[in-house]
Specification:
heterodimer, A: alpha+beta, eight-stranded antiparallel beta sheet, globular, B: five-stranded parallel beta sheet, 5 helices
Chain lengths: ~240, ~120
């Protein structure tokens, strides 16, 4: 491994990096996940472009500007991801979250679980905003899951459409799956020690004071596939 | 023709692509690059910049905040945003400052349009 390569993105604090590196050893063999700074930078920028399109779609839904954070690319095990979501304010004080997940596959190139995560209280606010102020509590309650699935569908399809356009891939998406649950119940299809590439970007609705994150979760083979395509898209040396 | 071009983007990959297209389209241009607003403003003190191509979402100041600062120093400086965050409200805010917004990804055609709008192409 050259000096420029790293098993984890340089953006991680040292303590986090050590934990992630340790976890990655159990999940990813050898140097599969050795990414250099420029590759990580290009991945982050690819997600930035993808999430820009998603924010535009979301903004159209809620009729409000969606403030975006700078994207971050991290390699984290599941347990650490849950902790990170708490640190980022995605988990409410009641420890409950709303996650809308959709699976996307780009032929043999890569597959990703794309997830939008809000604190449960925030997701209810967004649903109310979409359905209109005059909507009864009973209707909000009845339509909540359906509306959240549609929000996820719009955000995640715009995001993956942006990513697919950048790397010239057609992505096939599954149906959105809404989970409203304690944070510990998220991502249970992954073992605690499994390392995942997590690209995240924050979306904040200033008017509604709601913050959420879009995550793209990928395993080792998909990371390799996506990195190849991103390198091509950015004409990296 | 305005030939001293400032490019600000926190992504090195995007800067490399933008600069590559600028050099191909304007071989005589002087290009100054920065990865954030603080660096851009420092470089501005040391250089004589004509026009700027700015990303929007960056650590620290965003593209429009940097544009505001640059305009205070150079009221007639031509600026455009080259960003993935081309929401209607971002375009409106930029429009009020006379700044055109171009949408990423960075392509030769997008950079050509930026340079034409900035008066940096012969």
């Amino acid at each position: 491994m050259s000096a420029r390569q790293t098993l984890v993105p340089a953006v991680l604090p040292v303590k986090d990096a050590q934990e992630a590196r340790s976890a990655s050893a159990t999940a990813c063999v050898g140097e599969v996940l050795a990414l250099n700074e420029l590759q990580l930078d290009a991945l982050g920028e690819a997600f930035n472009i993808a999430l820009g399109a998603a924010a535009e779609a979301f903004s159209g839904l809620v009729h409000e500007e969606v403030e975006l954070s700078v994207p971050a690319v991290e390699l984290l095990p599941r347990a650490k991801l849950l902790q990170r979501l708490k640190e980022l304010g995605c988990v409410g004080e009641d420890n409950r979250v709303c996650a809308i997940r959709q699976r996307f596959e780009a032929q043999a190139m890569f597959a990703t679980d794309a997830v939008v995560v809000f604190p449960e209280s925030g997701s209810v606010q967004i649903v109310r905003r979409l359905l209109g102020a005059g909507t009864s509590e009973a209707d909000v309650s009845e339509l909540e899951e359906d509306t959240l699935a549609e929000i996820g569908n719009v955000i995640l399809n715009a995001c993956l459409d942006g990513l697919g356009g950048l790397v010239h891939a057609n992505l096939n998406g599954g149906l959105p799956d809404v989970q409203i649950c304690p944070s510990e119940a998220l991502f249970q299809n992954r073992a605690d020690g499994d390392a995942m590439l997590i690209a995240r970007i924050g979306m904040h609705l200033a008017g509604s004071k709601v913050s959420g994150y879009v995550l793209l979760l990928m395993d080792c083979a998909s990371i390799q596939g996506l990195v190849r395509e991103v390198e091509r898209a950015f004409d990296l040396p | 023709v305005l030939q001293n071009i400032l490019i600000v983007d926190d992504s090195k990959a995007s800067r490399m692509m933008t600069i590559g297209f600028v050099r191909a389209l304007c071989p005589t241009a002087e290009v100054t690059e920065a990865s954030d607003g603080a660096e851009a403003l420092l470089l501005d003190e040391a250089s004589s910049l004509d026009v700027a191509i700015l990303d929007m979402n960056m650590p620290g100041a965003d593209g429009l905040q940097i544009a505001k600062e640059l305009r205070q120093r150079h009221p007639h400086m031509r600026i455009c945003l080259l960003t993935a965050n081309a929401q209607e409200r971002v375009r409106t805010r930029a429009g009020l400052m006379g700044i055109h917004v171009l949408r990423k990804p960075v392509t030769r055609e997008v950079v050509r349009e930026a340079l034409q709008r900035l008066g940096a192409m012969a």
